Automatic annotation (TrEMBL):
This is Fatty acid desaturase family protein. The keyword rRNA-binding does not apply. Its EC number is 1.14.19.-. The chain crosses the membrane at residues 191-214. InterPro entries: FA_desaturase_dom, Fatty_acid_desaturase. It comes from Lutimaribacter marinistellae. GO terms for molecular function: oxidoreductase activity. The keyword Kinase does not apply. It comes from the Bacteria.
Length: 315
């Protein structure tokens, strides 16, 4: 489950795996603070452009909350297991209708069996590469809210967030049958709708619907799919840790709108999954310094990763 141990010494891994309560708290504060700034932008200059920007930024920060919950699932967000459980559950997972315990069970199975027949995420990645038309249809469903509505229904049924496709929901159902507890859903719903109500109190009555529910149903689903495709779409179905996953380089705009909190360093995360997200760039450089660059599956940007998976305009 830790392929990196074959290529890095314990002395090299130890400082990379060092966790910080202060940095973990900063990441959570940064995520919610960015959401608040997006609201402030629209409040100060209310117009269609700032509305769209706010929806996109908040949708990307909803993905950011999912990433920080993911960190907590690996006990990498804080040094304290209690903080990982509490903050990861209530400030990261529940606001986006995700349940930390169920996600951890699912996600560690993905790490153990990456891109093999036992990988629960294989149903998401095995459909790539696909056609340009198929990807357009998927993105259209995401951006028009159809994926999000289907996903919300899936949440009500299973209390776990996936990519929103029917086949993904079917794949998850059996894996989570033992860990899903129906009463747990009622812990997520009040938090999710509580954010909507709070935004309505802070601003106009409709702010929560426009700036929490709408991003959740649209941009969050879109960037979630883009991230899933970039990480494992059109990669090898093998046990080679350098080829069954992809790292995608991301500039400032991509980090703002598509790939927050170093989620683009996915190959490095699979190499040593308990390394905190803020140390993944250092792990990337360490692998390059060891001469492993030619073996690593990387893309220069998200556009390139999507093209590998099928996003090519028809001739």
């Amino acid at each position: 489950m830790t392929p990196g141990k074959a290529y890095l010494t314990p002395e090299e891994i130890r400082p990379l795996a060092e966790r910080s309560d202060l940095r973990g708290a900063w990441l959570v504060a940064h995520c919610w603070g960015t959401i608040a700034l997006a609201l402030a932008l629209f409040a100060l200059w209310p117009n269609p452009l700032t509305f769209v920007i706010a929806v996109m930024v908040i949708g990307s920060r909803q993905l950011g909350l999912a990433i920080l919950m993911h960190e907590a699932a690996h006990n990498a967000l804080f040094k304290s297991r209690g903080l990982n459980e509490t903050v990861g559950e209530w400030l990261c997972g529940r606001p986006i209708m995700a349940e930390l315990a169920a996600y951890r069970h699912y996600h560690l199975t993905h790490h153990r069996f990456t891109q093999t027949d036992k990988d629960p995420d294989l149903v998401l990645s095995s459909k790539f590469p696909t056609s340009h038309a198929s990807m357009k249809r998927k993105f259209a469903r995401d951006l028009t809210g159809r994926t999000g509505i289907k996903q919300l229904m899936g949440q009500i049924m299973m209390s776990v967030r996936l990519a929103g496709d029917d086949d993904a929901i079917k794949a998850a159902a059996s894996d989570f049958a033992q860990s899903f507890k129906a009463p747990q859903l009622w812990k997520s719903l009040p938090v999710f709708f509580g954010v909507i109500v709070l935004m309505g109190i802070v601003g106009e009555w409709w702010w929560g619907l426009a700036f929490w529910l709408l991003p959740y149903l649209t941009w969050f689903q879109f960037v979630l799919r883009v991230r899933n495709i970039a990480e494992h779409g059109a990669t090898e179905q093998s046990d080679d840790p350098f080829r069954n996953v992809r790292t995608t380089h991301a500039g400032p705009l991509a980090r703002l709108l598509v790939a927050p909190y170093w989620v683009n360093y996915h190959l490095e995360h699979h190499m040593i999954m308990h390394v905190p997200c803020y140390n993944l760039p250092s792990l990337h450089r360490t692998l390059l310094d060891k001469g492993l660059g030619p073996r690593m599956n990387t893309a220069p940007g998200y556009g390139a990763a999507l093209r590998e998976a099928g996003w090519r305009a028809p001739a």
